[in-house]
């Protein structure tokens, strides 16, 4: 392979004097392929992604983001935007072009009186929880603490608190945005309200968010954890989850997962969190803890940040990942039988099939009008292939693709934007559902040249 270097989209190299000029007006780090920091800086969570950007602009603040966008535009560079670097398809990286890397901007500032939290775009969910927990507050987000809040919030954001308090994007109050022209602007209910609509579920299509203001909720201790059963109980566990979740109280969120124990024994688990009264939490959990004799019952009162970090170890940095996901029309006995069979065929003990049910505040009519399209209460199946040896890549990707094909007869045709791996334009369109035409019109207003296109891309309407 030729040594990587910064190239324009027509493949012409960018003169080093231009990079030197950018350096004179940049507070963060500009990392080139020749720098010793380069190989570490181009690494993201998914070890299966191996890209070689021509320049990594690790921004120290909003002014650096503005400079990086203007430089990219002036030099016709392909642009990737990196928040937490957790997007499974590696949308945070590109070859030859520039990565506008926000991972150094991790500030989190809580206003306990207003119950609001200002968050910079490189923060992880764990960074946010660490600060909010000091005040007995939490922002609804995901389920793994190392996920970046920026990408998660822009794609919607489902997690332990969503059934009670809504999606992450439902709790977004305002954004500071650098547009495709390098202008700094605001977006909220009254300023650029159309842009604000698109930022809540439309992904990274409309600009780089350099600051998020979220609403926080009083959540401190929760009653949660996981209960693990032998794999031969998988049907019973998935059926219990199917039967109880649609009528469960909104305080309670639970996922059913076919996974393996850390020593590789196939198992099935319920993972969940009750964020209301602990005695009620214990009562709600009871039917999930008594399906059979568990291998492990680790359900207990927990500080919320601990709940958020509970399954971090199951998603280690640098492991190889390939994901598929799909909402289901229904979770029938037949779909459950199929999911169990597919889980039993997983070639890697690190892989999992996870059935999630949202509903509650996600589906209620009182949520704000946002670009997030998949609100109806439904089961979502995540097919998560994970392995460590690159020699196993083909086998694991084939398993995930075959599993997605096999569940197609049960699929609703809807997808969760945040879980999309490298998919075709039709799948992206289906994830945006009925909102796609409005998003395309917004794209032609805010990014008519599709400058921001390494994302779940919306094409400008012309
Ligand atoms: C282990 C794991 C667990 C997960 N769990 C959940 C979950 O529980 N719920 C859920 O909803 N999702 C979940 N996800 C999916 C996650 O929300 C997405 O992968 C999301 O993209 C991660 O955000 P990030 O900032 O880390 O992304 P990055 O990989 O850094 O960026 C991804 C894309 O987001 C856009 N982007 C990032 N930052 C900005 C910004 N500041 N401005 C504009 N665009 C930006 C860019 O288009 C970029 O291409 C999980 C992912 C992983 C790997």
Description:
27% of the residues lie in helices and 23% in strands. The chain is of the alpha+beta class. It folds into three domains: 19-101, Uridine Diphospho-n-acetylenolpyruvylglucosamine Reductase, domain 2; 108-218 and 434-446, Uridine Diphospho-n-acetylenolpyruvylglucosamine Reductase, domain 3 (2-Layer Sandwich); 221-419, Vanillyl-alcohol Oxidase, Chain A, domain 3, CATH 3.40.462.20. A seven-stranded antiparallel beta sheet has the order 15-12-14-13-17-18-16. Strands 5-6-10-8-9 form a five-stranded antiparallel beta sheet. A four-stranded mixed beta sheet has the order 1-2-4-3, covered by helices on one side. Strand 5 and strand 6 form a beta hairpin. The protein is globular, with a radius of gyration of 22 Å. The mean pLDDT is 97. It binds flavin-adenine dinucleotide. Residues 45, 81-88, 91-92, 102, 121, 142-144, 147-148, 150-152, 154-159, 203-204, 208-209, 315, 418, 454-455 line the site of flavin-adenine dinucleotide.
